[in-house]
From TrEMBL, chain A:
Organism domain of life: Eukaryota
Name of the protein described by the UniProt record: AP complex subunit sigma
One of the GO BP terms on file: intracellular protein transport
Any one cellular-component term (Gene Ontology): cytoplasm
Limits of the AP complex mu/sigma subunit domain: 3-142
Xref: InterPro entries: AP_complex_ssu, AP_mu_sigma_su, Longin-like_dom_sf
Keywords, ordered alphabetically: Membrane, Protein transport, Transport
Annotated organism of origin: Ilex paraguariensis
Pfam families in UniProt: Clat_adaptor_s (PF01217)
Record's subcellular location: Endomembrane system
Primary subcellular site in the record, as a coarse category: membrane
Family: Belongs to the adaptor complexes small subunit family.
UniProtKB/TrEMBL annotation, chain B:
Domain GAE: 758-875
Superkingdom per UniProt: Eukaryota
Species per Swiss-Prot/TrEMBL record: Ilex paraguariensis
GO cellular component terms listed in the entry, alphabetical order: clathrin-coated vesicle membrane; Golgi apparatus
Name of protein: AP-1 complex subunit gamma
Family, as annotated: Belongs to the adaptor complexes large subunit family.
Sequence segments annotated as region (Disordered): 693-741
SUPFAM superfamilies to which the protein is assigned, alphabetical: ARM repeat (SSF48371), Clathrin adaptor appendage domain (SSF49348)
Length: 143, 878
C-alpha cells in the first residue's frame, strides 16, 4: 500500500479535499494536515517536491492556487507519484474543463468518484483518463 | 409536522452551505455555520427524511473534510447503501468510505448489503461494492466476502477484475491465511492485455509474495519469464495515446513490473539472471529528459541494486545515480540521494566516489535534500575519510541555517564520538562544535566530553587553555561555558601556569584574576541557566583554594547569590561562603580535583541509563518551594558533580551540603528512589568513595563502603573532624548521623537565614512494636521561633485502630497548637496513615531545643490501648 492519503489544499491552507487510506482520528487528521500544509506551503519553487514528515513522505505539486499533496510510505517511487498527481489534474481538467478550486469544492463528491476510479486502498487502479471518466460521465447522463 | 417544516427551511442546498462556509471570515463564524447545519441535519435524520438523505450526506462529507465530527451521519450511509437506486448507493458507499472506518461496529451491519451488491446484475453496482470493500474491509468481512471477490477476479468486464484484484490485496493483508486461494487467479491476471488489470494484477502478486513464501516460490518459478515478456512488450510497445506519458507507454505499469521483478529476483540467482537483459535495456534506453522516464530509471536502479549480483548492471545503475546526482532538478537529486543510501550496503566504494557531490548537497538550500545528504554522509564516514569530512561539516556548521543546526550538530557529535580514537582530535572537534553550536549539543554529549577530558591527563592543560580561548569568542554557547567552567575549576592552575604545553600551542598569558573573570562572566550572562550558574559557583569555590590571592574576590562573587530567588543557588552561595570564610582548614581537602572519571562505567551507564533517564524525566517534574520547576538529571550528571539539576530532598540540606562539596549529589527524593537505587549499585570506586553523602534512607548499605574506603583518608578525616558527637540521638538513623552532625556544625551559624524552610531532617518521633510516628519539620518564613510539624502515624500491627487520638504536651517555654487529624481510623499493616499538623512556638529559640511528651490512644479489637513516649531527638535549632 503506497499511498496513505491525498489532500488538496488552497493557497490559504484550507483543505478542499481529503482522502485517507489509513485510519486516523479526526484530531490526528487536523493536526497532520496543519503540520504538512505549513511545511509545504512555506517552500519555494526551486526546492524539491518532497518533504519528509513523521513517517510519511509528502509528494506535492502546485497548480495555480491549489496544492496537491500525496502522503506515501518510504517504499514508494516519489517521481511516479509526481506523475500521478499530474494525471489526476489532467483527468479533472478533462471532466471539469480547466479545473479550479471552486469546481472541487462544489463538486466534492464528483472529485471523490474520480479519485475512487484512480486509487483504491492506496494503490493505483487505472491510468487511462477515458477509462476513469467513462463510468462517471455515463452516470451523469443517467441522473 | 411543524418541526419538520421548520427543519426544511433550515436545510440549505449543499451549494449554499458551502458558500456560507466560504464567506466566513473567522474560524468562529465557520464553527457557528457548521453547528447550525449539523443541527438541521440531525433533525432531518431524526425525521427519517428520505428526500434529503442524499443532500445531507453530501453536506456531511464537506463538514467531515473540514474536521468536524459527523458520526450521526453513519447510519444514513447504511440506509443509502440499502436503497435500490444507483445514485443513492453511490453516495452511500462514498459516505461509508469517508465517514466510517474499519474499527466501527456499524460496519458489520453493511456486510450483508455488500454481499448482495457484489452479486448484483448491474456491474457498476458491483464496482462500487468492490471499491468500498477494498478501502474499508475488516478481517471478519474479509473472511465472509473472500469467495465473492475471488469469483469476481474472473468477471467478464476488465474494470471489475482490476478492482477485484486490489480488493484481494486488502483481504490477504487482513487475513494472510486466505493468500493461497488467490495465487492462481492472480497468476492468470498477469496474462491480460488490459493495462488496468495488469497494473493491479502485478500489484496483487507483489503483495502475495510479501505475505506468503509459497506464493513467492510459485511466481518465481512460473511467472518470471512471463513478466519479463510483459515488460519487454510495454517497453517496446508502439505509441498508445490512452496510456502515453511524455512518449513512454504507461510508466506506472513499468514501475509496478520492475518492482515485482525486484521481489522475485531478490535472493534468487536464476530469476535474477533471466531479467538481466530487459533491465539493461530499460536502464540504457529510457529517455531521461522527462520526469516519467526518470521515474522508470529510478525504479530500475532500485531493482538492479536489489537482485543478485551482476557487475555490469551495477555499474550501469551507479552511473545513472551519478547522472541524477549532478542533475539541476532538485527532485532528481533528492531521489539520487535516497537511492545511494540503499546502494551503500551493496557497493560502498561506488558511493564513496560521489562523496564530494554529496557533501555539497549537505549545504543545499533545500531542507529535504540537506537532510537526505546528511544521513548519507553519516553512513559514508569511515576511519580514512573522517578527518576531511569532519572539517567540511564543522566549517559548514558556521554558516548553516538555525533550524538545521540541531540535526547537523547531533550527527557531527555522533560521528566524532564514533571515531574518537585520538583524544586530542576528539577534544579539538568537540570544542569547535561547542563554540559554533554549543546551544544545540545534548547533555550526554558534553558529559561524555568531560569524561574524556578527565581521562586525558596529558591534555588537561591544553584543553583548559583552548577552552579559555574559546570562551573569549563564543561565550554565548551554553554548553561551551559549562565545559569551560568545569575545566577551569578543575585545572585552573594549569591555565595560569601554562602547564603541559604542547608543541602546537601558542603560549598565552592568563592571570589568576583573568580566570576568575571568565567564570564570573559565565555566571552573570543573562542567558545562563541554573545548571550553568551552579557549576560556576562550584568552580569558584575550587578556584578560591587554588588561587588564594583571589579568595576575597571569589567570596564577594559568591555572596552575591545569597539573595538569589533560586533556592539551589542561594543554598550554594551560603554554604560556599561559609566554607571560604570559616573553614579554611578543611577547604583544600573538600575542593580537591575530581578523581579520574571511569570511561567504561560511564559509557555503560549511559547506554543502560538512557531509557531510565527518559522515564524519570517524564514522571518527575517537581516544583521547588520557590517555584522553579526542575526535572531530574540523569545519574551521570550526579557523577560528574554537575548536580544542580537535582532536586534537593525536602528536608536534608545537610546532606546536600556535604554532597555538593564532594561534587556528588545522591540525595534521593522519594519518587526517584528507582534511579538512585540504580546509581548506588554502580560498581565504580568513585561512587563508593563518595557515598558518605547518601542520606539516611540508603545509608545502611553505604556505611560499610565508607568505612572500608580507606583510600580516601582525607575525606574520612573531614568527616571525623566534622562529626563531633555532641548529640547523637539514639533513634535517629545511625547511618545518617555524620550528615546530621555536619549540619550541627552550622546550626549555630547565624549566616543561615531562618527562612530557609526545608532545612531539617525528618525524625522518627516515636516507635513501638505497633505504631510509628514520623515528624516532618518546616519553618514559616520570617518567624524563626515557630516550627510547623507534620506528624505521620503508621500502624505496624495487622489490626485496624479506631478512635485514634494523639495528644502532646510541652514544657512552659513552648507553646503548642494541634490541628485536627486527617482521620481517626488507622488502617492495618501500614496501608495508609493519619497525618496531623502541630505548631510549636519556642520562646527560648536558639537557647533551648524542643522536647515533647506524647500520649496516643486507640481501640484495637474492641480494646482500649494507650501508649506514651517522649521525644528528645528534635533537630537542633528548632
Amino acid at each position: 500500500m503506497g499511498i496513505r492519503f491525498i489532500l488538496m489544499v488552497n493557497k490559504q491552507g484550507q483543505t478542499r479535499l481529503a482522502q485517507y487510506f489509513e485510519y486516523l482520528t479526526l484530531e490526528e487528521r487536523r493536526a497532520l494536515e496543519g503540520e504538512i500544509v505549513r511545511k509545504c506551503l512555506a517552500r519555494n519553487d526551486q526546492q524539491c517536491s518532497f518533504v519528509e514528515h513523521r513517517n510519511y513522505k509528502i509528494v506535492y505539486r502546485r497548480y495555480a492556487s491549489l496544492f496537491f499533496l500525496v502522503g506515501v510510505d518510504n517504499e514508494e517511487n516519489e517521481l511516479a507519484i509526481l506523475e500521478f498527481i499530474h494525471l489526476l489534474v489532467e483527468t479533472m481538467d478533462r471532466h471539469f474543463g480547466n479545473v479550479c478550486e471552486l469546481d472541487i469544492m462544489f463538486h466534492l463528491e464528483k472529485a471523490h468518484f474520480m479519485l475512487e476510479e484512480m486509487v483504491m486502498n492506496g494503490c493505483i487502479v487505472e491510468t487511462s483518463k477515458s477509462n476513469i471518466l467513462t463510468p462517471i460521465q455515463l452516470l451523469d447522463k443517467a441522473s | 409536522m411543524l418541526r419538520s417544516l421548520h427543519c426544511l427551511c433550515l436545510l440549505l442546498q449543499c451549494r449554499d452551505m458551502i458558500r456560507a462556509i466560504r464567506a466566513c471570515k473567522t474560524a468562529a463564524e465557520e464553527r457557528a455555520v457548521v453547528r447550525k447545519e449539523c443541527a438541521a441535519i440531525r433533525a432531518s435524520v431524526g425525521d427519517n427524511d428520505q428526500d434529503y438523505r442524499h443532500r445531507n450526506l453530501a453536506k456531511l462529507m464537506f463538514i467531515h473534510m473540514l474536521g468536524y465530527p459527523t458520526h450521526f451521519g453513519q447510519m444514513e450511509c447504511l440506509k443509502l447503501i440499502a436503497a435500490p437506486g444507483f445514485p443513492e448507493k453511490r453516495m452511500g458507499y462514498l459516505g461509508l468510505m469517508l465517514l466510517l472506518d474499519e474499527r466501527q461496529e456499524v460496519l458489520m451491519l453493511v456486510t450483508n448489503s455488500l454481499k448482495q451488491d457484489l452479486n448484483h446484475t448491474n456491474q457498476y453496482i458491483v464496482g462500487l461494492a468492490l471499491c468500498a470493500l477494498g478501502n474499508i474491509c475488516s478481517a471478519e468481512m474479509a473472511r465472509d466476502l473472500a469467495p465473492e471477490v475471488e469469483r469476481l477476479l474472473q468477471f467478464r468486464d476488465p474494470n471489475i477484475r482490476k478492482k477485484a484484484a486490489l480488493c484481494s490485496i486488502r483481504i490477504i493483508k487482513k487475513v494472510p491465511d486466505l493468500a493461497e486461494n488467490f495465487i492462481n487467479p492472480a497468476a492468470s491476471l498477469l496474462k491480460e492485455k488490459h493495462h488496468g488489470v495488469l497494473l493491479t494484477g502485478v500489484q496483487l502478486c507483489t503483495d502475495l509474495c510479501k505475505v506468503s513464501s509459497e506464493a513467492l516460490e510459485y511466481f518465481r518459478k512460473k511467472c518470471t519469464e512471463g513478466l519479463v515478456k510483459v515488460l519487454k512488450d510495454v517497453v517496446n510497445s508502439p505509441y498508445a495515446p490512452e496510456y502515453d506519458i511524455a512518449g513512454i507507454t504507461d510508466p506506472f505499469l513499468h514501475i509496478r513490473l520492475l518492482r515485482l521483478l525486484r521481489v522475485l529476483g531478490q535472493g534468487d540467482a536464476d530469476a535474477s539472471d533471466s531479467m538481466n537483459d530487459i533491465l539493461a535495456q530499460v536502464a540504457t534506453k529510457t529517455e531521461s529528459n522527462k520526469n516519467a522516464g526518470n521515474a522508470i530509471l529510478y525504479e530500475s536502479v532500485a531493482t538492479i541494486m536489489s537482485i543478485e549480483d551482476n557487475g555490469g548492471l551495477r555499474v550501469l545503475a551507479i552511473n545513472i545515480l551519478g547522472r541524477f546526482l549532478s542533475n539541476r532538478d532538485n527532485n532528481i537529486r533528492y531521489v539520487a540521494l535516497n537511492m545511494l543510501m540503499k546502494a551503500i550496503t551493496v557497493d560502498t566504494q561506488a558511493v564513496q566516489r560521489h562523496r564530494a557531490t554529496i557533501l555539497e548537497c549537505v549545504k543545499d538550500s533545500d531542507a529535504s535534500i540537506r537532510r537526505r545528504a546528511l544521513e548519507l554522509v553519516y553512513l559514508l564516514v569511515n576511519e580514512s575519510n573522517v578527518k576531511p569530512l569532519m572539517k567540511e561539516l564543522i566549517d559548514y556548521l558556521e554558516v548553516s541555517d538555525q533550524e538545521f543546526k540541531g540535526d547537523l550538530t547531533a550527527k557531527i557529535c555522533s560521528i566524532v564520538e564514533k571515531f574518537s580514537k585520538e583524544k586530542i582530535w576528539y577534544i579539538d572537534q568537540m570544542l569547535k562544535v561547542l563554540s559554533e553550536a554549543g546551544n544545540y549539543v545534548k547533555d550526554e554529549v558534553w558529559h561524555a566530553l568531560i569524561v574524556v577530558i578527565s581521562n586525558a591527563s596529558n591534555l588537561h592543560g591544553y584543553t583548559v587553555r583552548s577552552l579559555y580561548k574559546a570562551m573569549q569568542t563564543s561565550g554565548e554557547q551554553e554548553t561551551l561555558v559549562r565545559v569551560a567552567v568545569w575545566c577551569i575549576g578543575e585545572y585552573g592552575e594549569m591555565l595560569v601556569n601554562n602547564v603541559g604545553m604542547l608543541d602546537i600551542e601558542e603560549p598565552i598569558t592568563v592571570t589568576e584574576s583573568d580566570a576568575v573573570d571568565v567564570i564570573e562572566m559565565g555566571s552573570k550572562r543573562h542567558t545562563s541557566n541554573l545548571t550553568t550558574r551552579a557549576m560556576c559557583l562550584v568552580a569558584l569555590l575550587k578556584l578560591s583554594c587554588r588561587f588564594p590571592s583571589c579568595s576575597k574576590r571569589i567570596n564577594d562573587i559568591t555572596v552575591q547569590y545569597k539573595g538569589s530567588l533560586v533556592l539551589e543557588l542561594q543554598q550554594r552561595s551560603i554554604e560556599f561562603n561559609s566554607i571560604i570564610e570559616k573553614h579554611q582548614n578543611i577547604r583544600s581537602a573538600l575542593v580537591e580535583r575530581m578523581p579520574v572519571l571511569d570511561e567504561v562505567a560511564y559509557s555503560g551507564r549511559r547506554a543502560g541509563s538512557l531509557p531510565a533517564a527518559v522515564s524519570t524525566s517524564q514522571v518527575v517534574a517537581l516544583n521547588l518551594p520557590n517555584g522553579v520547576a526542575k526535572t531530574t538529571a540523569a545519574p551521570l550528571v550526579d557523577l560528574l558533580g554537575l548536580s544542580s539539576d537535582d532536586i534537593p530532598a525536602p528536608s536534608s540540606s545537610g546532606g546536600d551540603f556535604l554532597q555538593d562539596l564532594l561534587g556528588v549529589d545522591l540525595s534521593p527524593t522519594s519518587p526517584l528512589s528507582g534511579t538512585n537505587q540504580a546509581q548506588k549499585s554502580g560498581t565504580d570506586v568513585l561512587l563508593d568513595l563518595l557515598s558518605i553523602g547518601t542520606p539516611p534512607a540508603q545509608s545502611t548499605s553505604s556505611t560499610p563502603d565508607k568505612l572500608s574506603s580507606s583510600k580516601d583518608s582525607k575525606n574520612s578525616g573531614v568527616l571525623e573532624r566534622l562529626s563531633s558527637p555532641t548529640s547523637l540521638q539514639a533513634s535517629s538513623p545511625s547511618g545518617g548521623s555524620p550528615v546530621m552532625d555536619l549540619l550541627d556544625g552550622f546550626v549555630h551559624n547565624p549566616a543561615i537565614p531562618e527562612g530557609n524552610g526545608s532545612a531539617y531532617p525528618s525524625v522518627v518521633a516515636f516507635e513501638s512494636s505497633t505504631l510509628r510516628i514520623m515528624f516532618d519539620f518546616s519553618k514559616s518564613p520570617g518567624n524563626p521561633q515557630t516550627t510547623l510539624i507534620e506528624a505521620n502515624f503508621t500502624n505496624k500491627s495487622p489490626n485496624v485502630y479506631t478512635d485514634f487520638i494523639f495528644q502532646a504536651a510541652v514544657p512552659k517555654f513552648l507553646q503548642l497548637h494541634l490541628d485536627p487529624a486527617s482521620s481517626n481510623t488507622l488502617p492495618a499493616s501500614g496501608n495508609g496513615s493519619i497525618t496531623q499538623k502541630l505548631r510549636v512556638t519556642n520562646s527560648q529559640h536558639g537557647k533551648k531545643s524542643l522536647v515533647m511528651r506524647l500520649r496516643i490512644g486507640y481501640r484495637m479489637n474492641n480494646k482500649d490501648i494507650l501508649e506514651e513516649g517522649q521525644i528528645n531527638n528534635f533537630p537542633h535549632g528548632l
